Amino acid sequence: MRSTTTTTMAVKSKLVSLLFLIATLSSAFAASFSDSDSDSDLVNELVSLRSATESGVIHLDDHGISKFLTSASTPRPYSLLVFFDATQLHSKTELRLQELRREFGVVSASYLANNNGSEGTKLFFCEIEFSKSQSSFQLFGVNALPHIRLVSPFISNLRDESGQMDQSDYSRLAESMAEFVEQRTKLKVGPIQRPPFLSKSQIGVIVSLIVIATPFVIKRILRGETLLHDHRLWLAGAIFVYFFSVAGTMHNIIRKMPMFLQDRNDPNKLVFFYQGSGMQLGAEGFAVGFLYTVVGLLLAFVTNVLVRVKNLNAQRLVMLLALFISFWAVKKVVYLDNWKTGYGIHPYWPSSWR
Fold this sequence. Notes:
Layout: H1 2-51, E1 57-60, H2 62-70, E2 79-85, H3 97-114, E3 123-129, H4 134-140, E4 147-151, H5 174-185, H6 200-223, H7 231-246, H8 249-255, E5 261-262, E6 270-271, H9 282-304, H10 312-341
Parallel strand pairs: 1-3, 2-3
Antiparallel strand pairs: 2-4, 5-6
Helix pairs in contact: 3-5, 7-9, 9-10
């Protein structure tokens, strides 16, 4: 009798353990499916918010940061590339916030156009504006702009600056931003697709105007009454090309060099001349180009205009004045070169003068 009772109790004990194990597994599976459903809901909402904007950049506020980052459990099924903006600082052109924001939108639109499948839901481009999301700025620890940060799926501490984009990643704007994204996320952004400079309607209007104006232009060309027949236009064009060449303007365009920088020691001051041979600001090139242009114009004046003046005293006076100004301009160029690079320029006299 005792043996039967013991066996019955053992069976009941095993049955209870089995039921407890089933209940535990069921709750685990339910929690797993619940988390999966929650993650998919977040992804679907991000996709919906992205589709509502032209470039695919999602506008987030403090509530959005809480919902998609701080409240979402890690690892999240997506990464967020966040652009921090401040409307009140758009007037400070040295920060280039508006330009960087446009390029950020270009990268977002290119990524969206080149990744239509599941890859397109692994990365979302977002922006946060300071006046509407000051708490989020403090949460990320952002105290200076421009600032772009990648929040990967495993980041739980938003003050982690490992995903911050360096200033070197802004050098080539959209192209360098795309390289940063591909390097950090291992996702393919694809070719950068910039919007056309002119829309189809604008091109149609321009073509219509050209067709209408063509007969009148041909008539004036045959009569020799166009601007191309005006020697003053060619003179101004030659001076412009000369200044464009000696001022290093092509270097500034290719390297996208700023005209000036903000002084690190005093933010209220601007730096127009950078001391060091590794960098040249736009203002430096224009200043040196202006001095070169002055010397070139004086040389052209002396050789083409002054020689026609019959008064010898006037010729000598103007010649001395031109020589003095040219000497001053060249001396300034030599001084700036020595100050910037540290290299000195010394005159070489004929050996018979020594």
